[in-house]
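== Protein entry: sequence and backbone fold ==
=== Local backbone shapes as whole numbers ===
==== Amino acids and backbone structure tokens ====
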Amino acid sequence: MNLLPDLPVPPQLRDPVLVKGLLQVAAATALGTVVLGLSYVRDLDLERELGGSFARGFVQVLAMGALIGVLFSIPLAFSGVVLAAMIGYAAWESRKRGDGVPQAFRVSLTAIGLGASVVILTMLAAGAIESTVRNLVPVGGMIIANAMKTNSLALDRFKSEIESNRDEIEALLAIGVPPQAAVSEHVTESVRASLIPVVDAMRTLGLVYIPGMMAGMILGGSNPIYAAQYQFVIMGMIFAAGGLTSMTTSLLIGRYTFTEAAQLRRFEESQPTILSALRSLR
């Protein structure tokens, strides 16, 4: 006797492949647990951040998988709303790496929005991104995610550079050096550091780094040469979005770092809400 009523189950959840997927998730989780254990043993105090990001990533990607069918059925015009929401959330998360840096959310929103939008619109016009929700949202999300990563690295490096060299910068200001010139070296370092991952990926593309999209296209029956060409296009988009984002971040953050009296601001950490961050955009 079945004590539980027969509940309607979506066909995606009845797929036997899900059982295999759960085993793979368990294996990945076990590896993640090893990292958390090492952090605890070495007293790195990163367990909360690492564990939280791991769990959130799992929940968020499952939610996206559940909603992907809905996203693919929406009109093309609404894909712009979805991408704009992605940019806003990416900026909100990224500004945490520069917590305390003046106008970190404004800088992140502008830089990620500009870097990702220019690349997406250009490649749409070139036909590299199809004007369909099925293609635009995933590829656009990939570009936004990498722009966010670059922005986070730029904010983090700039913050540490300024805090480590504050006395030197203030001494330069005291003898009349213009504010932008006083921090130019540190701005340059933040840009270089933020672009290291994407530059290394481009250098090793095809030799060490074999991207999953290229492999998937080949397994799906595409011409291997075309798959390689399109993968390079994707990496080029990521490279361009990262570069534009990083340079925009460094340009804006260099201005917000000083008061109207050309004094270096103090980086005071805070816990802004989404509402207060939006108000700061005025």
Q: What stands out?
A: Residues 1 and 255 are 72 Å apart (CA to CA). The chain has a mean pLDDT of 82.
